[in-house]
Amino acid sequence: MPSITKIDAYAIRVPIAEPIKVAFGTFRDRPMVLVRITDSDGAEGWGEIWSNWPAVGAEHRARLAVDLGQALIGTSFEPGEAFRHMSRLTEVLVLQTGEVGPVTQVIAGIDIALWDLAARRAGRSLAAFLSDQPMSRVPVYATGINPDGPELFAAAQLREGHRAFKLKIGFGRERDLRNIAAMRAEIGPDCELMIDANQSFDLQTAAEIANEAAVHNLHWFEEPMRVDTSLEVWDDLAAASPVPLAGGENLRGEDFPVWIERGALKAWQPDITKWGGVTGCLDVGRAAIAAGDDYCPHVFGGGLASLASLHVLAAVGGGGTLEVDCHPNAGRELIVGDLLPVREGTVPVPGTPGLGAIPDMRALSPYVTWASGDN
What we know:
This protein is of the alpha/beta class and 375 residues long. It folds into two domains: 131 residues, Enolase-like, domain 1 (2-Layer Sandwich); 221 residues, Enolase-like C-terminal domain (TIM Barrel, Alpha-Beta Barrel). It has 14 helices and 13 strands. Strands 4, 5, 6, 7, 8, 9, 10, 11 and 12 form a nine-stranded mixed β-sheet that branches. Strands 3-2-1-13 form a four-stranded antiparallel β-sheet, with helices on both faces. A hairpin with a 4-residue loop joins strand 2 and strand 3. The longest helix has 23 residues. It is globular. It starts with a strand and ends with a strand.
């Protein structure tokens, strides 16, 4: 088996015309960190590392990826083995630095790159490499819908082929309920409508919002409370809410088996670039399906994050839905291109080797703020 000879990373920042608002802050640009792994045969694999917050975090994570990746130089781990090896290797580092987020995010991006490399070497799409019977198309939902006139944004995405939509809430009850009603009126009764509070409510407020908004036939309610709220309180909210609960983008590792067994959430949303990569999220997706729940990967990054999440969902199957950011973002568009046209709420799964796309670093070069490689 060829060994790993080089790991490069690129921090990228794409300016945006209109800030994107969520309950805990505002995006004023779109950061992205790409990692490239090269083996002794010259084959390459690409991954993406979560870097949305803090606003200065992309460059730090890119440098950290090159530093941590040195532990793999000269090795020939299988992708899943490398994920577990790096997770064990960095346990004390995490205790020393307190940087559990950046470290797990870097390991996730490296894991994606190793799976991309392995699938490319096998000449198979990542979905086909992971499953003998992957889905050929997956359902998607439009996300990143701001609280300012969200029905106008949704109407445009409806015309583009979307049939499911997620609205950000947490901006005041009156405004939230007005926006939910306006969204439902705009998209009609047959489209799916979800809401995401980004951990902004307590139990009482979340239960009240869920009951008041349920009349609008919500598909699920994402992260209504802080993720560190006790499981007993999550049980209470699940019992009080007529709307199924969703979450998982801010869970890690051993959190998932405990939460899945508990049963408060019905839609599971790990972010493949934030924790787990392909290795961890594939396990979560399979466990969710086995529990009778949905696997709906969280995505709010660049093009490789979208493609990796798509392939894992296609491999897992079930009734899950892929998150699709509909805001302009060159970090996604210059990688995905026309691979994922939306038709009646679904997109095709690319059948070309690996993730299905190789970043064009020349096209992305105007947005690169730090790079370890020489091109």
